[in-house]
Write a structure and sequence with these properties.
Helices cover 21% and strands 27% of the residues. It is an alpha/beta fold.
Amino acid sequence: MSEFRVYGGPTVLFDYGGLRFLTDPTFDQPGDYPRGDGRFLTKTAPPAAGPETLGRVDVVLLSHDQHPDNLDRSGRELLSSVPQTLTTPSAAGRLGGTARGLAPWESVVLGPVTVTAVPAQHGPDGSEPVIGEVTGFVLTGDGPAIYVSGDNASLPLVREIASRFGPVGTAVLFAGATRTGLFDDALLTLDSAQAAEAAAILGARRVIPVHLDSWAHFTQGRDALDAAFAAAGLSRLLDG
């Protein structure tokens, strides 16, 4: 099985098919970071380690570039040294460089690995015009599939992904029950109970929970997630 190293927030490094993948790079220190609408997101803890500890990174899987809790200043600097960044079409247009945009269900073949962009919804129905495009990813081709959810709050989309790719070997689930005041404080990512439900829908053999810590707008941490998976009888799936 692939080894996953979680750096905090949504950032995790893993190997698959001989390639090294990094999700949503965030390595900045604690502080207030602009979110683009005159307000701030507050980072509360440093990363587990700095980008200098990553070693080789072949591909960044970037769910979106709009928010500093998914791509911060250090993460943007890192992109210039990575051969390929896969993300949404709009993010690729803004980032330039080696960024490549993938529409939902579009795939790219990287040696033995096929990476498919899968839909994600960063909030309630109708939120995309305000929040912008977000994507998840499914990796296939070298052993059991890996699903990276990105900032997704929609279980119906998880069901659609599972119908095409399930069961998956590993699900990297962005949880944390994110709320920022938008849309009457609606969830912008899965809460802990929904993450457990997503794992069941996907038939996942293992879950790497991320997007649980280091930011003030993540309203549920690892304790809540552990309790939700225990209540669902799925504690055996948790890793990381």
